[in-house]
Amino acid sequence: MRERVDADVIAFQEVSGAQAVRELLGPDWRVCSYEGHKVQRLAIAWKAGLGEGVCEPYWPLALPERVLRDQLRPGLALSLKATGKIFKVLTVHLKSSCVTPLDDQSRSPGRGQLDGEEPNCRLLQAQVGPLETWLDGHLRDSDALLMLGDFNRNLAHEAAEAADAPVRLAEGRTRNLWRELNDADPKPLTLLSSRCEGGSEALCSLGHRQPLGRQDYGRLRGELGCRNPIGLDHVLGAGAIREADARKVALGADGETTAERLALSDHCPVLATVGF
Question: Does the residue 73 lie in any domain?
Answer without folding.
Answer: yes
